[in-house]
Structures are given as structure tokens and as C-alpha cells.
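Example A, followed by Example B.
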Amino acid sequence: MTRRGRSAREGARSRTRNVAADQPPFEQPRMRLDPIRAVSDDELESIHQASLRVLSDTGIDFLDETARQQLSEAGAEVDGDRVRFDPDLILNLVKTAPEEFTLHGVRPERNLTMGGKFITNTSVASPPFVTGLGRDRRDGNRDDYRNLLKLGQVLNIIHTSAGYPVEPMDIHPSVRHLHATHDMLTLSDKPPFVYSLSRQRNIDAIEMTRIARAVDDATIDEQACIISVINASTPLRYDTVMLHGIQEMSARNQVIVITPFTLAGAMAPITVAGALVLQNAEALAGIAYTQVVRPGAPVIYGGFTSNVDMRSGAPAFGTPEYWQACLIGGQLARRYGLPYRSSNVNASNSVDAQAAYESVFSLWGAVMGGVNLLLHGAGWLEGGLLTSYEKMVIDADTLNMVAAMLKPITVDDASLAVEAIAEVGPAGHFFGTAHTQERYTTEHFAPMVSDWRNFESWDEGGRVEAHQRAEKLARELLDAHEEPPMDTSVRAELGDFVARRVAEGGVETDY
């Protein structure tokens, strides 16, 4: 988390004064730089054409009868579970998806623009384990889940959760989505998320979001306000529950993030180009299906292509291959005129140098790839198996630095400072000049986790590592959390809905 600096001493005092208030305001960064192109236009076209050949010749399995019937009526060739798409059919369907749309928060102050040059950062989503706040790695649980929601609410650079920041595994799966969504809607007013793990979970979460926003069904059908990620079962398959998620969400005009999880050398060809052909084919098929369900439904092109350690088979993140795939994924999304999702990931098991440099590589690939939705933006460790409080705070620092870097640079007569340079002359300093004094309170940012003290100024307790400073800040941020305002009658209606659905047993599970 970065902040406006006044002086090193005042900045140090502010850390203990109000860390929640001492951060930039809630706003979306905008990409002002040209995204990097990792391949030429001809090479991108080759990936595009190869993807279309995969969809027309090999096809992709849709493991749901309703989906196959809808696709057949739309013009696709259906043979058993296998669906093949004519290239023109795919492209005509994808064209109906919006380039940009509004994602509505529980309160209007939290509305987000998805697409264009806007960037939306999310907290980490879906790890089964959690660590931090002085405790070792442990199973995901509701207490930590609620705490992490609070942390994401207080951190202004986090715009939405886009998933459970840790899985609350102490709640039975049949009713977990009810309690988790209730927590998400009452502890935060940022746009909520639902897992597409059964049709009823989607229905429940949409209704709970409608209640929290105090709007009617017609408004929900007009205003996107909840997200679900749909993963292809790579290679070349969409399973039943994912397709049910598309059916329920897209039919209600809610946001689907189509994300193939393509690991080069395992579920995808070992070459980056081949893995991206598979990613693109699966993404186009899923996006096309959202438009069959409802033309114009909001959908995001998701890229999540990386490689594996071929000695162990374990996924690798923050690698050069992942970096390349981030950049090319952005090129593909822009080719189709779609918002682009990428991720801030790493494979480290702890908050260490590996976690830092792999995250920076993946983050830079995403940002310079033109990302619009940065999933897992803060808190991810251990290849997505572990959430860390300290990593979330450190990542928020990094995201704020990226946001500050993306702000326009002022170049005018005053900022060029020719008069200030003349005033100081040779061998002087600029600390006390009017030019500096008029500007340093609004134009200079300092990371909150960083330690600017010299070695000689360390106190008797010795060196304080970054993760220790981040732990202290995480505790202070949690202490600063306040539940967002919600009308008493709305809160009661939301609670009544959860109680009724829990009494009904929630959703069917196998255990």
C-alpha cells in the first residue's frame, strides 16, 4: 500500500496513527501505456487460426444436454458430447459480447468499469489453507475467511474478492455458499462472487446479492453485480456444473470469467504457442456459449497458461513462460474486443524472495499484457494452495506502486522546474525549495511495508523483516475494519433467506 509522504518522520508516525486512512482512495488504475506485444500480428493470427481449426476439426466436449441442444440450434455440429464450431459461427457469437461494462457494487460507490483501460484488482481466491498473524499453515476456516474479507474491504487497492479468499472448510459444503455469501455481502460492499459448483448455488447467490442491493429482479437482469469464474476441464471439455453456472449467470446478465487452466507439458502442449492455441480454443468456445445463452451477456476472456516442473509435474508460476503467456493472452483478448483476466501468482511456500520476484514477474506480465481483471491480486502462495495475510499486505503495496506508476506524468513549465534548478544552482539541494514544498505532499508515495531506516538505526530488537512488518500492518488494518452500512430491514431479509435455505438443507452433496 503506498501513501502520500510528508516527511520520513511524519510518515513513520502515520504508520502507527491510522493505516486504513493513510492509503490512496478507492479508485481503479487506468492503463496509460501501450500494452507489450510478445508476438507479431502474423504470429497472433497463426494462433487464432490454429484455435479455429481445433474447434472445427477436433471440437470440444460439452457435458450437458441443454448446452448441446442450445449450441446445435445456434448452428454448431453436435455428435454425442462433442461440439464442433464453424469459424464464422464462433466469431459471430463472440462479437456480441460487450467490450466494456459496469460491475455494480453492493453500494454505488463500489461500482467498477470492466474492460477498456481500467484495471480491477482482486484478493486471492480459493486456497484451502491459510497462514499468518503469528500462526502456521492451517486448514481454511470461517474465522480466517471473515478476517480476510475484512482485510480486502479495508485495502482500497483491492476492488473485489472474485472468490473466497480462503475456503471456509469448517462449514459443510451443502450450506457453505450461503454463510460465505452472507459474510461477503455484510463484511464488504465490494462486488461479490459465486462458485459455479451447482445450479442452486448460483441461484442462491444471485438472490442474496439482489436482497443486499435492495433492488428488484428486473434491475438484476439489467445490471451486472456478481462474478463467477468458469474453468474449462482442459483439454477440450466443459463439465456439467460449469455449464450450469453459465446458464444461470449469463441468463441473468451476470459476469462470467471464462478461464482455461492450461499447463504446458501436462494438460496442454509443452510449447507456449501450442498451449495458447488450446487456451484460446477453449476460451472462445466458452465465450461463444455465454452469447448463445444471452447475446450481450458480460463475459471476460481469461488467460491462465503456465508450465509445470517436468521433474515433478507440479505447476510453476512466475516463470518466463507464464510471463509470455500473459502478454499474448492480452493480445488475443484485444483481438476479440473483450476484457482480459490474468493473475498475480507464484509458486513459493512462504513470504520470501521467491514469492516476491515471481509475483512481480507475473504481475508485470499481466499489467503490460493489458489486464482488466487481475485475479489473485493479493495474498497467493504455494501455487494457489495457501493464503497469507502478510503476502496480501505486501501485494497491496506492490499494486499501489503499479497504480502510482500508471498515473500520468505532468510535463509543463512548472514541472520542468527550470527556475528551481536555477535557484539551487551547483552543489545545492532541493529539500527546502518552494517547488519541492508545494508538491511533495501530493506527488510522492512510499510503500507502507518498506523499511527506510539505516542499519545503524535498527533498535535493540534487531532487524524487522518485511513479513514481520506486514503482519503488524495486517493486524492494524483488521482493527480498522467497519461493517459497511446496510439498512436494518435489508440485513434482516438477508438473514432470513440464509436461515430458510439452511433449514431446507442448502444443496445436495456427496458427503
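Example B, a separate protein, is given below in the same form.
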Amino acid sequence: MYYKLNEKYILRGWENLPYALIDTRTGLTSYLSARQFQAMKYCNGKVDLSMPFIDSETQSTIKQAHQAGIIEPCEPGEKLMPNQEYKKFPSRYLNRVHWSITGKCNYRCRHCYMSAPDASSQELSHDDIMKIINELAACGVMNVSLTGGEPLIRDDFLDIVDELLSRNINITQIYSNGCLVNEKLLRELDDRKIHPEFNMSFDGVGFHDWLRGIPGAEKAVDRAFRLCRDMGFPTGSEMAIHNDNKHVLRESINYLASVGVRSLKTSPVSNVGEWKKNFNTQSITKPELFQIYLDYLPYYYSDGMPLTILLGSFFTASPSEPDKYFISGYRESYDHDKTYSCTHVLSSIYITPEGRALMCIPISEIKMQENFPFIIDKGLSECLKYSEYLSFINLKVNDILRHNDECRNCKFIKHCSTGCRGVALLNDENNLMGKSPDLCELFHGGWIRKIINTVKQARPSAKGPVIDDEMHF
């Protein structure tokens, strides 16, 4: 009786995660015990699993893996593909990298945090880009999303794609304004047998041109959405909300669904970069934003849940699970010594146009980013050991509470876990232990109860995350 791994699975290990099974098609990482790992190692076409030395627990693990489609029967001597063999990397585990391959852009967005139209120096050379890809491969990175600026303005964009693919690094998303998304590009990607999601910003029906600073931007992204839909490429979108476009949220969501967009993430315009210099009077307050979101929720359900929505710091729902919803920032946390402040940064990083490895995008908007080294200088593995990086990603909720009396004494602390550190730093870049204003408003403003009551009226069968109904939200 011989088995081997299904061709979509590979075995990997890192310093902080020695045994892992990776589904290369979904990017899902399953952590294995030493015994489970050994059972998977036996599934290589070389070991007769009916032999007496295979104990009952290992046999049970193999049976479960077969039922799950992780392994399959094979002929004696059938080999795994080279990429499936176990490999351990001398670095921390990273599942995903979000990479700004350029700071340059062909638009003049009024809210650009990196002032991209004038970012003449914010682009690494071709050789340095290739060096960073080599660093990603050396650290076992499996998934990369490409952004900018506008990533498609790089002349070597397809060279970057080819190098990533040659290193078995999956390109999950391409963030673009849509202007340069054309049939030729999509055919080039299709020829390479990849169909990454194109995530293209859309800032409201009738308002996109103004925020993007270019006449015809709305027409261009509409063409790009339709082209991707027609050629089989998934699309997502993000919408920046401000005073002028806040009333077109419903219309914009229904439009996006009509051109095949699968998901929309919304957020208020951040008061940084170009916006802070010239347009901050157009910003809206958190209570105003949350009221806009709340007013929209009944329409979302009456319109048939047209796509997945992520109303930033407020609400998430998807037509794929119509009777489930999530309240952003709400989570049950009772052991603050063991609860990480942010789980996202444990397995992902953001690379800036200049090549710094940061925990997340918000850090790139504040002066703190200058404290972090360049990947080209130090190597990615060393960047992941950098003291400020480690202190951030290993931060537990209690570490924050020891320095924050207001949060420690808050009655909602077991439900918010102090919130996003990136948001806290945007609020006060000198206080990593500060509060997260978004969540303070969400909880203290009574929005939890308002969301529960609104959804209960709009879709009585939908269930949310709140399990302590006696809390006075």
C-alpha cells in the first residue's frame, strides 16, 4: 500500500513553524505535529504503508489524509514532484507579502499617501527587484500581491511576474487603477496560466474622476472591470469615502456588482499625504461614517447581497454565507497574556517602494518607517529579526494594557483587544500602546447594538459574532 501527496500539496518548515502542509492552490497553511509530519513524509511513493512498523496512530492519520484528498494511492516508486519535498527555511514563517514595486503612478490621486505623481525616486532598479524576489524565495514566501503606485507602469512588470512564478511564488492580487489593464496584458497572464485578482479602486459613481485627479478615470476603470469579467479574471475594489461621495455608496456597490466585482472594501480617506495638505476639509468623522454604513445595511440585504462588503472598522458580510456577518474589530479575548494584538502581521509583511520590510501599510505613512532597514542591505531574513519588527508582531494585548490605563479599565476590553496598532499609530505616531479611535467609537458609540438590531430587521436569519448579549453595547 503506497501513497503520495496530492500534487497541489507541499511540505515546508520555518524557524517558528517547523512542520507545515501547504495547499499551493489556496495558499492555506496547516500546522502539523511532529507525528503528523512524519506520516506525511511516508507518503512519498517509496514506503509500503502496510508494513508492521507503521503504528496505528500513523495509519489513522494517513487514512484521514486520504479521505481529505491530501494524499492519494500510487504505484511503488512513483515520485513526488521536486517542489513537494520537505524544505525548511532559515527565517520566520511568512505566508504573504504585499509589495509596492513602484511608488510612481500615472494618476494624480488627491488622497495619495505617498504623493505618487512626484515619487520620482521611489522605484527600485530591475536588478534590485530581482534581488528582493531572490530573498522572498530564500525565506519560503508563497504568495505575493503587487501594488504601487501603479505597478503596471513598470516596463519590466512581466519580467517580475515571470521571476516570481519561476520561484513558485503565487501572485494572488494586482492592485491597479485600471488604466493600463488591457487585453494584451490579460492574455500574457493567461498564457502563464495565472488569473490573479485585479483589485481596482472605485470611488463612487460620478465621483471617481475627481478623487483620482484624471478626467476619464471612471470610464477607464469601468472598461477594465468589464474586460476582466469577460476574460475570466476575478476583480475586487476599494472605495475611499469623503463628504462628496458619501451618498452614492449603495449605487456604487450595485454598479460594481453589475460589472462582475466580487468584493468591496470601504474606508474613509486618511488624513495623510496629499489629502492632509490640500483637501482635509472633505474628511468625515467616524460617527458620520458609521451612520452611512448603518443606513446602507438594510439596502445591502434588500438588494440581494450583491457582493462581499468590508465596511472598514464596522461590518463584513458575503453572499457566499448569507446568514453570517462579522463586526469588524469584535473578538472574544479572555487571556490577554496569550492573545496577540494583531494576528495579521504574524505571517505577512509590506514592502515599500524603496524596499523596506514593514509590518503593515499604515507604518509606511508615518516617520517610524525610517527606523526599519532595507531588504537589499540586510536581507529579508535579517529584517524579520529586527528588534522593532519583532517587538511589534509579538505584542500581546496585556503588553498594551500595562501602558494604557484607559483601555485596561474599559468594560469592552475583552471584545476589542485594544484594536489595530497601525490605526493607533496613525492617531499618535509616538504611542504604539495608544487606543484605536475606530474601535473606541464602535463600542462606546453604541454601534454594536445598532448593527445587531439593523441586521435583525433586515435579515432575521443572519447571525453575528456577539455571544455575550448581556453586555450593554
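On Example B: The chain has 19 helices and 17 strands.
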